[in-house]
Amino acid sequence: MTAPWMLPDFDDHEAVHIFRDPAAGLTAIIAIHSTHLGPAGGGTRFWHYVDPNAAMTDALRLSRGMSYKNAMAGLAMGGGKAVILADADLNKSPALIAAFARAVDSQGGRYVTAQDVGISAQDIIDIGKGTRFVSGLPPRAGGAGGDPGPSTALGVFLGVKAAIKRGLGKDDVAGVHVAIQGVGSVGGGLARHLAKAGAKLTLADRDAARAKALAAELGATVVNAEDIMTIEADVLSPCALGAILNDHSIPALKVPVVAGGANNQLARPEHGAAVQARGILYAPDYVINAGGIINVALQYLDDADHAAVDAKIAGIPDRLNAIWDESAATGDHPAMVADRMAQKLIGRG
Ligand code: NAD
Q1: Which of 66, 118, 177, 253 to pair with 33, CA 20 to 30 A apart?
Q2: What tens digit of pLDDT does each residue of 235-281 get?
Q3: CA–CA separation, 254 vs 181, rounded Å?
Q4: Ligand 1: nearest atom to the Cα of 186
Q5: Domain 4-70+77-127: which topology?
Q6: Spatial contact of 283 and 320, defined as CB atoms under 8 Å apart
Q7: What CATH class has 149-288+317-345?
Q8: Most ligand 1 atoms within 8 A of CB, residue of 152, 214, 299 to mutate
Q9: Is 200 a catalytic residue?
Q10: Is pLDDT above 90 for 349?
Q11: From its phi and psi, is residue 155 left (phi > 0), alpha (psi between -120 and 50) or beta?
Q12: Are 291 and 152 a contacting pair, CB within 8 Å?
């Protein structure tokens, strides 16, 4: 394995730990990017990687992303990420989970884990039996935590409204045409908020029946999944896949605003400039989709009530406006500005 600090994604991470427990079948990495603002929060990914360098690169890249996301969400949390290197059959035994919990616990709270790809809600409960440094456990009545989807959808809705005001000069969402790619947990929740506010909706999902059912409920229009990126609308809201803003899609966009909940929407950093060059207002993904992490983090940090979560989510439009203000003043595209603001917040600006 290449030394982590020799990999391109190493960004002066505070610590990178490797754990091996052959009896339990565990090989795991915990990457701690920053604890400047608080314990390094970030989920655990359970994945079969082509080689250890790919796993390390993922841990480094994702932990830095969590630093930025948590900072821009206004949370007292740093950024970290764990990766468990699964075998090709993705075998996950109770012994492996228990060994991983011991690894998390050994950090004494510098790293706080959560769910990510390949880790279920039940896995989180099981990890919680071996360490208290775990977030996303089932919520108490009226408390923060639980499914992050509705909180993410609320934040994206508020962010879309802010983008409509900024990009179209409209205070009212009524009659504004929003095209939503992916109507699962986040996109579906967003569609319901927007429908209630009187927006005109066009929906698309790879699962056509899902889009059709929601459209019937909300009085929306449905298009094929392959057509949503080129639809003429006021706002495109990507709520499905990453890397959908790319060399191929950006020239074909027919919207003045892109604001949605999907992670990693820009295929490469330079696509932020390409979107800006087309005169399209972009809401940086990790800022607009922070509602879910706010929900999970406030449960861990404060055992907060849901009302406190919603109050914090209500700050997302202000953060987006600050980004767009600086973007207008400097000419730098919004994603670049968001990264720069995050770096300052974690003491690296
Ligand atoms: P989900 O699985 O509930 O929904 C995703 C939907 O997108 C599904 O209905 C799926 O059929 C559809 N889809 C997949 N590929 C598609 C395509 N090519 N065209 C159209 N539709 C397609 O997932 P989710 O939790 O709603 O997450 C959606 C996005 O938001 C992901 O990028 C996720 O990483 C991001 N996100 C989610 C949360 C959260 O709290 N759930 C938080 C932050 C970011």
Answers
A1: 118
A2: 999 999 999 999 999 999 999 999 999 999 999 999 999 999 999 99
A3: 14
A4: 26
A5: Rossmann fold (3.40.50)
A6: yes
A7: alpha beta
A8: 152
A9: no
A10: no
A11: alpha
A12: yes
